[in-house]
Structures are given as structure tokens and as C-alpha cells.
Amino acid sequence: MNIRLEQPEKKRIGLMGGTFDPVHYGHLVAAEEARYQFAMEKVIFIPASKPPHKSRNDISTPEQRLEMTKIAVSSNPYFTTSDIEIKRAGLSYTIDTVQAMKQANPDWEIYFITGADAILDILTWKNVEGLLEECFFVAATRPGFKLESVECKLGRLSKEALARIKTIEVPSLAISSTNIRQRVREGRPIKYLLPDEVEKFIYQNNLYLSASW
Description:
Blueprint: E1 11-18, H1 25-37, E2 42-47, H2 62-73, E3 79-81, H3 84-87, H4 94-104, E4 108-115, H5 116-119, H6 128-134, E5 136-141, H7 147-153, H8 159-162, E6 165-169, H9 177-185, H10 196-204
Parallel strand pairs: 1-2, 1-4, 2-3, 4-5, 5-6
Helix pairs in contact: 2-10, 4-6
Organism: Sporotomaculum syntrophicum
Keywords: ATP-binding, NAD, Nucleotide-binding, Nucleotidyltransferase, Pyridine nucleotide biosynthesis, Transferase
Pfam families: CTP_transf_like (PF01467)
């Protein structure tokens, strides 16, 4: 007698990519809200080695950004980090990372977490239609963000691709890495914008002090 075994349900895993220069509470709250709303088993933070959409040439080293991210996520048992993009040569393309993660973990259903601002530029990403076949996207928005702007900007995507982009509202997304770097350069406080240990790491390593930041 043949017994048909049921296929195990796939694990929902969140990937949060970004420069994280520096990582802050906006990133952490968005990741936790996405984890909760979509019942993810964990969220993996993946600092980019060479972000293809960043024109700045003064980004902190990948190792520094990875260390800050490790520090920031250490208190959450559902959060972890990966150096997959730092170890990989060349530009850090999301589709390469997602495909590598799925190949290594075929039982994963991947949700890529990012900000709504990044979603509006997704048409410029490498093989965006292929990427949306590989994973879902969770776009974290600020309160009052007009979701119609996403649909209008991304109208060239197929209906199937658009259906794989989900949105969540996150109040603390008003915090930005750009503003934190500027505040450090100007000698203004950054406390309560990011974890205390990340703040300490920034000052101990003299990050963001030069005028080029």
C-alpha cells in the first residue's frame, strides 16, 4: 500500500536588506511588525556589501555595518544577521541573495522587507519580475503614505507581481540613517533613535564625523 506523505508547510522567513549605515529603530520596528503580521519564524538582516543604488562613496565598511546590525538585533530572539552579501563579490543584488537563500533552504517562503520608498524604485532593480516570482515583498510605510502612489508607479508590473507586494504601516519610519549621520556630524544627539550599543559603536569608531558624510 502506498502512503502519500503530506508536504510540510513552508517556513515563512523575513529577509531585511539594506545598507544599515547605521541601523536604527525604524529598521527594527518595521522588521518586528512584519514578522508579527505575516507570522514569520525569523527575520534575517542582510547588510549590503556594495549597494547598486547608492552613489555615496563614503559608506562605512561592510564589516562595521554588519557589526552594528549584529549589536542592534541581539536582544530579539527572532532576529539574526547574515554576511551573505558581504562575502559575495560584486554589487549586492537582491535577486542573487534571495535565490541563494532559497537554494540553500528549499523549505523557506521568503518575505523581503523594505521601505515603501525603495519599493517605488523597484522597477530599476535587477530582474524585478523574476524577483517577485521568487519572494513576496513587504513594504513598510509611514502613516499617511498614499498607497495609490505605489500602484501608479508600479503599473508596468503584471497583476501577479503586484499581488506579491504587501504593505504595513510603521510609525517610527520617520527615523532615517541619513539624518542620524548628519546629527553625528553636527554634534547633535542621536540617543533614542537607535540602540544604545549601536550609538556607542558609532562614537568609539568615529563614524560619520567628516564633512563628506
